[in-house]
Structures are given as C-alpha cells and as structure tokens.
Amino acid sequence: MTRERPDPSELPVRDAVQRYLRRRRSDATESSVKSWKYRLKIFVEWCEGVGIETVGDLRRYDLDEYNDLRSGKIAPATLEAEMWTLKTFTRYLDEQLGAVEEDLYEAVRIPDLDPEDRSDDVSLRRDAAVALLDHYRSDPSVRATRAHVFLELAWFTGARQGGLRALDVRDVNYEDGFIEFHHRPDTGTPLKNKIRGERPVGLPEEVMGSLREYVREKRYETSDEHGRLPLLASTKGRPTPNTVRNWSYMATQPCIHSPCPHDKERETCDWIDYSQSSKCPSSRSPHKIRTGSITWQLNIGFPPEVVAERVNASVSVIEDHYDWATREERWQRRRDRMHSRREYVEQLNFEIDDDE
C-alpha cells in the first residue's frame, strides 16, 4: 500500500519554522540560529493569534500586515533584521518546499534605512580607546594584564567576541607580527563564518610586545576541557561568552584612568563589580569595540576591502552596519581619497593643437 505523501502547504507554521531552523544548523553558527529562532517565534505567535494555521494560508497581505504591526513596536534596525529573517524563511518555503504561493517572499518589505538609523553613539570611539590603551600601556600595575591584552586585541583586530574567545596561545606569531583565527568547532570554538572566517591579522609591534609580556608573566596557566591553551584564559580555562562580555565591560570603564563622567566615586560604585559592570553607561561590549575599531580603521585610510578581510565581513555589511563615522569623518575620508588619487586627475588633461 502506497503511503500518501504530505502536502507541504499544510505544514503548521510552527512546524515549518522548526524544519527551517534544522536545515540552517548545517551552515550557520548556533548563535545565529538562536537569533533567527527568536525572531521567527514572534512571527509564529502572531500567525496563531490571527488564525493562520498552515503556511499555505499565508498571503501577501498577511506579510504586509505583520510588517506594519512590528514597525510600530520596534526600532528601524531591529525591524530590518526581523524582516530579513522572515524573507529568508518564506523564500525557503517557496523555493525549497513549494509550500506557498510563488515568489511570496518578495512581499516581505525590508526597510530602506539611512546609516544613522542603524547606528547609535555607544560604540567605543577612538579618543576613548586611545585613553584606555595609553593607561594600560603606561601603568605598570595594569600593563600586560588580561584586561589590557583583551582591549589591545579587540581594538586592533576588530574581531567578533567569538573569535577573541577562540584564540589559543599557539595562534600568536611573534616573529611575523600577527595572530591567526581558526575555526575549531569540534573543540568548542566555532567562528561565525566557519572556514571562511579563518584568517591571519597583522598587529602593531606595541601590541605584540604586550601579548608576549602577558603570556610570559601574567596569563593564567590553565587549559580548557579539550587540552587547548586559551590565549585569554580564566582561572578555570576558556571563558564563556558571557564572561568575555563582562571582561569587556570592566576593561572599558573610563574611571580606570580618569574621574567618573557620571559623578560617582570608583571606590563606592556598584558598577565596578563584575556582575554589575554592564550597567556603567560608559562601558562597552565586544560588539561596540568592534564597531568602533572598524570605523577607526576606515577613518585612518584603510581601504574597505582591507578592513573587510581583517574583520571577516563583507564591504557592504561594514558600510551598512559597522561604519558609524560622523559626517565630518566621512568628509575627511573623501578629501583624503581625492588627494591620493590626484595623480589620476592630472592624467585627465589633454593638449590642444593651437593650429586647429
């Protein structure tokens, strides 16, 4: 007896989302899948609330209605992320399963955001980074500590939190002045873009010197559960992602080197406590350091293609999501590029024959 094959259009929306996420786990990191799961969970709950039981019930009007509903509740940048996730999901339903009307995904509207809508003023700015690093480098009591080395690596590589956490002692090449990011999922440290995220990143001599001093004198002599030696080591081995975030918050508090900008006394401030450090308005997460670093690298004249290779992101993603330069900084970049291309401008000239 032949078993009747299921009609994909009759898949419940919730089941379709779970199927989609299972498929994506093979080509995406767990953190990305978690983000998509959260965004699509909101969509599933909305569908069930309005009586949309199966994916075959979805219509273009529904997607437009959902967009209108979410746009009134969340920030433009958050809406953009949610709509991209929804568009990718509905495209999967169309092209992979044939479960919805053809080209339904084209009805998902992605907001056209200005760069200002994607950015805010909480990245680690150049001046703040310079002040912090100058303090760490010049004060013997904090030089080559884990906090110091964390900030050096985060700022000068622009790497993601997961990449910094994944570094081993063996990934530092002192002789040639670079570190290597490796995708090692079997031992607990995958990179966001997997094999495509592997790369060497060159570092200034001053940074390499701080790394050498830290590893030689102040790094905790611990290994992780796989026998690897994490570069940024805790007393128990390799830190958790949450631990790295807390290190970042504590390493970027300006009261480390200057009076508190929030009229508090460091000795009595709750925010200097490990568990409360994220509450300091001036502390920054690894993501905000990454954003500040990328903006700075572009401002000092690194071509976007070079920055993209260093930080493992596409040029378009950098321009849309990470470049938080001010209007004045963008103008200065254009002036610098104009001067660097002056030799080409001179070639635009041509001679005119006076006899003509």
Give structural notes.
Helix 6 (126-138) runs antiparallel to helix 7 (146-157) and helix 7 (146-157) crosses helix 11. It is globular, with a radius of gyration of 25 Å. A three-stranded antiparallel beta sheet has the order 1-2-3. The longest helix is centred in the first third of the chain and has 21 residues, at 30-50. A hairpin with a 4-residue loop joins strand 1 (172-173) and strand 2 (178-181). The chain contains 15 helices and three strands. It has three domains: 8-113, Tyrosine recombinase, N-terminal domain (DNA polymerase, domain 1), CATH 1.10.150; 126-286, hpI Integrase, Chain A (Orthogonal Bundle), CATH 1.10.443; 289-345, no CATH class. Mean pLDDT is 88; it is low at 116-120. It is an all-alpha fold and 356 residues long.
CATH class of the largest domain: Mainly Alpha
User: How would you name the CATH homologous superfamily of the largest domain?
Assistant: Intergrase catalytic core
- Structural class comes to mainly alpha
Proportion of beta-strand residues:
under 5%
The biggest beta sheet reads: 3 strands, antiparallel
End-to-end Cα distance, whole Å, is 93 Å
Mean pLDDT: 88
- Count structural domains: 3
Task: Report strand order across the widest sheet.
Answer: 1-2-3
Number of strands: 3
Low-confidence stretches: 116-120
**Could you say which overall geometry the principal axes of the C-alpha atoms support?**
globular
Secondary structure tally, helices:
15
